[in-house]
Amino acid sequence: MTGGSDAILDLLPMVFARPNDALARAEAVLDADPSPLHASVAHQVIGMWQRDFGDLRIALRHLRRARDLAARSGSADREADVLATLGVALVHAGRTRQGLAAFERGVTRGTGHTRARVLFRRGYVWWVLGHHREALDDLRRATPVLRQADDVIWTARALTLRATVHLALGAVERADADFAAAERLWDTTGQEHDKADVVESRALAAFRSGDIPAALRLFDEAAERYAKLGTPIFVFYIRRCEVLMAAGLAPEALAEADTAIAELDRIGGQSTRKAELLLAAARAARLAGDPHTAIARAALAVRLFAGQRRSWWETHARLVSIEARVAAGRSSGRLVAEAAELAEQLAGFGSPAAPEASLLAGRIALSLGWTADAERHLAVAARSRGSGPPLARMTGWAAQALRAQAAGSSRGVLEACRRGLDVLDDHRMTLGASELRARATAQGAELAALAQRASLVSGGPRRLLVWSERWRATVLSSPPTRPPADPALLSSLTAFREIAARAEAARVEGRPVPPLEREQRRLEREVRSRTLHIRGEVPGGGHRFDPGRLLERLEDGRLVEIAVLDGRVQVLLCGDGRVRRFEAGLLADAVAEAEHVQAGLRRLAHPGAEGRLKVLEASGRRLEELLLGAAVSHLGSGPVVVVPPGSLHRVPWALLPSLRERVLSVSPSASSWLRAVETEPPPDGGHVLVRGPGLATGGAEVPELVDRYGRTTVLEGDDARVPRVLDSLDGAMLAHIAAHGTFRADSPLFSSLRMADGPLIVHDFERLQRSPYRIILSSCDTARLASVGADEVLGLVTALLSLGTAGIVASSVPVNDATVVALMLALHKGLSSGLSLAEALRDARAALPSDAVHQATGWAFAAFGAA
Fold it and tell me: Where in the numbering of this chain does the CHAT domain appear (predicted)?
């Protein structure tokens, strides 16, 4: 290894090909009493490894030693190369002035090819500092020299860096061209770390062009490559956090950023990266609804960036700080001035965030009543509505809507909101995963609220209904993209099911489960990751809501859509050929009362709590006042459909006095109900009865139902395995599943029904070609849902409705197993005589004994949809 200069210099590119091998070989060189030149290279290699993957303090010691040894070796180019490496490390340590001075000396000492490499690294430092034009200037000077020298590795690095700088300036097409050229060069080398880096960079480019599924897929591919190398990847975490936030996964981004910060502190890593991670954490905390954490993280980031003389980054951190303070309820003229100043600075930097700062300044000014100032700032922000990525255009349309609101133009508000939400709809439709579609709606919450207020003021109840529907349960407006026949995904689902079953068996037997739970969580992450990679259909596939069609379909029934404006419940009563509006109570009071009701139902699932029945009935009366108000006296005598917002999905509507004896169904939206009404039953669908393991009653209703229907498939015992169950459910007319249900608030699409071979989860149902026309879920918690996004709910029921199921009966709380049997038998008696699910459930409740446990069981179940 020490026999020649060429051989020792091979260690330098090895740091980004096989980092740990390079470290070991460099240490071996130092053990062999090397010459100053060879020792300089070895110390430089160790310094580079520590700089990027370890302790920055150790890195600086080695690089200063490498610099001194290079000077002793008599090679000016060797000294220039080390000075460039040292300059990068000093800047990452926050010693910006010293780092730039090292580069000045390196540029002076280096010649030709070596000088080009020094310029490339200074270009990298300019990028780190946020001086993008200076970075491009150094790269412009370096790249032709590197190409002329046929230096494949350094030319590829220069192209990769130039693409990254173009991305920071919003020039996505230029970035794509450079990334493609760099990747072609990397494919001819063995630089595995550099190859992983370009995959990571392509992920960022995909994100900038608006393709979040591709970005997530490429980030996962890069993570696998980095994992094989066994090196920390802090820039990767920063970039992936940005994409997670855009995908509506801000809590995950915050957790990832905080974990990376802790690891960086543990190893004594780069101060520059810590500042960037703090900025990512601040953004994530603000989006996750935690403004105080955002303020604290942003303040730390601002101090670090200022000390590092990184004005581009510091300006972005100050923007997040102001956004967080406004989210915490602060508003002042000083904040307007600060936001306006930041907008000018960001525009000067060429940052895509400039319109956000102008929008923020305008929004604060409006809250203070400064309409002239607001108009000035909002007009600047509104310019972004015509071009750029979807979220930038939405910023522009939000600004335009606020301008119209300040000018008193309801028509202008509605037009701007429509255009902005159309942009978001197109963006959401590129997302194949229902989870991402639901979470993405949070980005349009302000536009939806502005439109609803404008409708309330000037448009009448029908227009308010249209806008309520425009933004309600949009994830159900079109079916999710079916997962591809991906062998890896199917393998992960099977492995997850097996591990989950083993963990459940271990719990029952009292054996330790932590290793199994860790493996289950790993497999869950793998399944979820693969589903998030699914790209959606072509934009524009959703249907527009038609109030006239709704009123026609209701016939003698009523549909009650509950909207919430500024914390107050607005009841939109549809029926008898018109839409009427009634104002009811405060949403916060209704949510609190609903929680009390849920607790009461849980207690009544067990004998001995009969005294709670009167308390529960009283809560039902209070809920009726808060949620329906004066609309109660206009419900008529026909069927009622209730369309609640996501925050009220746990209300047991059958408990409300005016609804107890009615044909009652619940739907996530009026559009969803219309689609269910118009869904044709399968002409040759059969009936499927499933009994899962471990039920207290053993699913006693199932044997009683076998002879009730003609063509019936019964799956129980070892036959009730997920593949067999899915095969039987596909295209069925009616499915009755008696199985333990588990709701996962932390990950609603892993809510499950327990089968013989493990859990049947929502991701499994999404593989059906046609979901059963009707489904009855007789176990606990199967109707529980999680609120996400603006006004979306995720869970088993909404997943089945979006897949084409027209009607579902399920429970939102734990129920008494024995009383469920009686309710289910009565329910099927009505169905077999030709009743709908809602009609049969009403009659089944009436047929139950009048004791508290039976009554609570009847109220716990609801009919969803329209079949």
Answer: 618-865
Both 468 and 491 in one domain: the answer is: no
**How far is 440 from 424, CA to CA, in rounded Å?**
8
Per-residue tokens: 378:
């909002």
Instruction: Look at residue 540 and tell me whether its pLDDT is greater than 60.
Output: no
More confident residue, 550 or 435: 550
The verdict on 452 and 325 lying in the same domain is: yes
- Angstrom distance (rounded) from CA 853 to CA 707: 28
Q: Could you tell me if 535 and 212 are in contact, meaning their C-beta atoms sit under 8 angstroms apart?
A: no
403 and 520 share one domain: no
| Residue-number span of the structural domain to which 522 is assigned | 487-533
As beta bridge partners, residue 715 has: 690
User: What angle separates helix 354-367 from helix 333-349, to the nearest 10 degrees?
Assistant: 170
Report whether 316 contacts 322 (CB < 8 A). Answer: no
Q: Which H, E and C letters describe 174-207, residue by residue?
A: HHHHHHHHHHHHHCCCCCHHHHHHHHHHHHHHHH
CA distance 635 to 576: 10
- Count of the separate structural domains present in the chain: 4
How many CB atoms neighbour CB 205 within 10 A? 23
At residue 202, does pLDDT exceed 90?
no
Same domain, 418 and 505: no
Residues 402, 407, 411, 416, CA torsion sign = negative
For residue range 444-479, what is the model confidence (pLDDT) as tens digits?
788 888 998 898 887 789 999 988 888 775 555 555
Identify the CA nearest to 830 among candidates 804, 809, 851, 859: 809
Structure pTM? 0.79
What are the backbone angles phi and psi of residue 222, rounded to the nearest 5°?
-65, -40
Domain-located, residue 585: no
Mean pLDDT of 392-413: 92
Tokens linked to 37 = 């030149």
Nearby residues of 17 by Cβ (< 8 Å), 6 or more positions away: 189, 190, 191, 192, 193, 194
Quick one: 20 and 79 in the same domain?
yes
Determine which of 134-138, 710-714, 832-836, 841-845 has the lowest per-residue pLDDT on average.
710-714
CATH of the domain at 424: 1.25.40
Residue 630 and residue 609: Cα distance in Å, rounded?
33
Q: Which two tokens stand for residue 820?
A: 């469920």
Domain termination site, one of 427, 448, 476: 476
| Statement to judge: residues 525 and 411 lie in one domain | no
Bridge partner list, 777: 737
Lowest mean pLDDT among 622-631, 669-678, 783-792: 783-792
3-state secondary structure of 759: strand
The answer to whether residue 152 is domain-embedded is no
Q: Which of 498, 514, 533 is the last residue of a domain?
A: 533
Cα pseudo-dihedral 334, 337, 343, 344, rounded to 10? -140
Burial 768-801 (b: 16+ CB within 10 A, else e): beebbbbbbbbbbbbbbbbbbbbbbbbbbbbbbb
The verdict on 453 and 519 lying in the same domain is no
Residue 219 domain-assigned? no
Digit-coded pLDDT (tens) for 702-738: 888 888 887 789 999 999 999 999 999 999 999 999 9
With a CB cutoff of 8 Å and minimum separation 6, the contacts of 628 are 560, 571, 582, 584, 656, 658
Residue 710 three-state SS: coil
CATH number for 85: 1.25.40.10
333 & 459 share domain: yes
Q: Which of 688, 646, 687 minimizes the C-alpha distance to 666?
A: 646
Q: At what angle do helices 410-429 and 460-470 cross, to 10 degrees?
A: 20
Question: Residue 678 class from Cβ within 10 Å (0-12 exposed, 13-18 middle, 19+ buried)?
Answer: exposed
Residue 607 lies in a domain: no
